[in-house]
Amino acid sequence: MLVTGTSGSGKSTLASLVARTLRLSYVEMDSLFHGPQWTPRPEFEDDVRRFVKGDAWATEWQYRLARPVLLEHADTLVWLDHPRHVVMRRVTVRTAVRRLRRQELWNGNVEPPLRTVFTDPEHLLRWAWKSHTRTGERVREVLRGEHADRLAVVRLRGQREVDQWRSGPLRRAAERGEESVR
């Protein structure tokens, strides 16, 4: 199962929760992608290919190189389609808290100084703003493409729908011992 959405939408949180609820394998794509000092890990693609060959799993649908591989092996795509203002509030608070706490993220990395939002064109906050509409475009492309007939897409617009899905279809799938939620 894949979870997609823009940065700050809750992809990792939901994918991890789905994995725990359905007893699936889980790996956070960011932990595979980011090496020390935010450099891409050369093993990333191989790690993704190894992960998807395992038993039932859940993860985030992100990174240009990984998306096709993940999509080829997934049966469900959960699309977190939150309004931009919700995502921006979440990603701003998350980024600030991580920076102030100097929280280690992946492979020794921490959030850069908050002032870099003004100096780094690829800063996460700027990225979240610029890329918000791209997720929807990618999902619509999938729905028109070769995987459309075998891939269930669950579109959740806002936290209320996420909570309803978690307490409804996801909970029922867990009670039945299923590995996917359609």
Structural features, described:
The protein has 182 residues and is of the alpha/beta class. It has a single domain (2-180), classed as Rossmann fold, CATH 3.40.50.300. The protein has 8 helices and 5 strands; from the N terminus they run E-H-E-H-H-E-H-E-H-H-H-E-H. The protein has helices at residues 11-22, 29-33, 44-52, 67-73, 84-101, 116-119, 124-144, 159-176; strands at residues 2-4, 25-26, 57-60, 76-80, 152-156. A 5-stranded parallel sheet has the order 2-3-1-4-5, sandwiched between helices. The longest helix has 21 residues, at 124-144. The radius of gyration is 16 Å and the shape is globular. InterPro entries: Cytidylate_Kinase-2, P-loop_NTPase. One of its GO terms (molecular function) is kinase activity. It comes from Saccharothrix carnea.
Radius of gyration: 16 Å
Give the uncertain stretches in residue-range form: none
What CATH first level would be assigned? Alpha Beta
What's the architecture in CATH terms? 3-Layer(aba) Sandwich
Given the helix and strand composition, which structural class is it?
alpha/beta
In the CATH hierarchy, what is the superfamily?
Answer: P-loop containing nucleotide triphosphate hydrolases
Q: Judging from the principal axes of the Cα atoms, what is the shape?
A: globular
Q: What's the overall average pLDDT, rounded?
A: 94
User: Into which percentage range does the β-strand content fall?
Assistant: 5-15%
The percentage helix is: 40-55%
Strand tally is: 5
Tally of DSSP helical segments: 8
How far apart the termini lie comes to 10 Å
As for the CATH topology, it is: Rossmann fold
- Main beta-sheet strand count, sense and barrel state: 5 strands, parallel
Count the domains.
1
Order of helices and strands: EHEHHEHEHHHEH
Major sheet: arrangement of strands: 2-3-1-4-5
Keywords: Kinase, Transferase
GO molecular function, one term: kinase activity
InterPro entries: Cytidylate_Kinase-2 (IPR052922), P-loop_NTPase (IPR027417)
Organism: Saccharothrix carnea
